[in-house]
Amino acid sequence: MSVKVLSVLVLLGSAIYILFSFPKVHPDCGLNVKQLIEKYGFPFENHTVTTEDGYILALHRIPYGRIKNNDHKREPVLIMPGTFATSADWVNMGENSLGFILADRGYDVWLANYRGSTWSRKHVKLNPEVNKEQFWDWSFHDIGIYDLPALLDYILHITKEEKLFYIGHSQGAVDFFALNSEKPEYNKKFRLMIGLAPVGYFSNAKSSFVHFIAAYQNEIQAIVDRYQLYEILPHSPLLATISQTFCNDNSPFQGICAFIFYLAVGHSNQLNKTLIPVIVSNTPAGSSFKHWRHAAQVYISDGKVPKYDYGEQENLKKYGQPYPPEYNLTQITAPVALYYGANDIFCAQEDIDKTASMMRNVVVNKRVPDFNHIDVVCGIDVVKVVFSDILKLMKQY
Ligand SMILES: *[C@@H]1O[C@H](CO)[C@@H](O)[C@H](O)[C@H]1NC(C)=O
Ligand SMILES: *[C@@H]1O[C@H](CO)[C@@H](O)[C@H](O)[C@H]1NC(C)=O
Ligand SMILES: *[C@@H]1O[C@H](CO)[C@@H](O)[C@H](O)[C@H]1NC(C)=O
């Protein structure tokens, strides 16, 4: 048989396969956070919190587990997702979801949505589609010093507690570092901080996306300004549909979908490919270019965690010095536990160790073999390898 005939046969075969293999859609596909929580039998509460700088944030609560037990005091836990993620990413792994596990263990679970993400696109004055430049003018710094205290104070007020547990993934950790170094009076409000794939010092990150932004900061900024591309990767129903069609268990393209995940967050054998279309139903959920540019500045800062660099003249006005000042991580006195994967392209061991060495009360610094940046939230073995540790640790605080 000639090569030509063979390739025609292969093409024909694939076409027939695609046409006749029905997509095997996971029943959780297309469900939003409320639908996921209620489907699994948990109560859902929808709260809104306004920050000092006017952003109106959605805060989603699972107040108790499937068995309601009134005598039991439920400690509040605030969970902050990483960039591009939302409250849904803590409840989209079925029974293995951290949000569900904590609720069933008797915690009062509060799932945050940072400014600009799907459920937090409101502001007292600004419209994210119209006042683009102003609405998207923020980085992890602003999430840390505005979103976090607003959420935290709201929860402590509602629950009449003095302290809470905090779990932050990726950006959710650097938000915490920014808050407690800038406003150290907040340290005492944290019973324990758990950082999953915690980004802090960042010079040894291996992400090509971050490397690319760092290398072409000014060129990209010019394009962003010209075409008003301040928002990046908002929630996309189209992407959700594409992922249901091409990433489901019957699709010959599922491997390509997994490959795209690995490019973004690092390789691993921990990705449950069946759940890709469930994850993409709600994620990515939007971020700002300024946030990524700030991350890229930290990356090229040569071992510092500086504030946003506006250029010499603006820095002089904003900070009173030509270079942006650094966050003072030694101001962080709240107890901190860090978990990260050995294949994480954002969290290198050197960077994590340096972050840990600066803070005063690090109680755990655990490196998990084979895990990547998101496996600490949704890896196949995450319950056994990370969550069970966290549950034990939380009991001690
Ligand atoms: C929460 O309430 C807001 C305001 O009423 C509403 O726009 C939003 O859809 C609700 N969120 C969910 C997840 O249902
Ligand atoms: C992946 O997720 C599916 C659907 O929730 C589940 O049935 C399956 O057991 C998971 N696979 C592994 C290896 O955990
Ligand atoms: C950082 O904070 C520590 C502890 O409060 C303090 O001793 C030190 O002077 C601060 N460093 C800078 C550069 O502000």
Automatic annotation (TrEMBL):
It holds the Pfam family Abhydro_lipase. Residues 1-21 form the signal peptide. Keywords: Glycoprotein, Hydrolase, Lipid degradation, Lipid metabolism, Signal. GO terms for molecular function: hydrolase activity, acting on ester bonds. GO terms for biological process: lipid catabolic process. Residues 33-93 form the Partial AB-hydrolase lipase domain. It comes from the Eukaryota. The active site is at residues 170, 344, 373. Belongs to the AB hydrolase superfamily. Lipase family. PANTHER family: LYSOSOMAL ACID LIPASE-RELATED. This is Lipase. It comes from Ignelater luminosus (Cucubano).
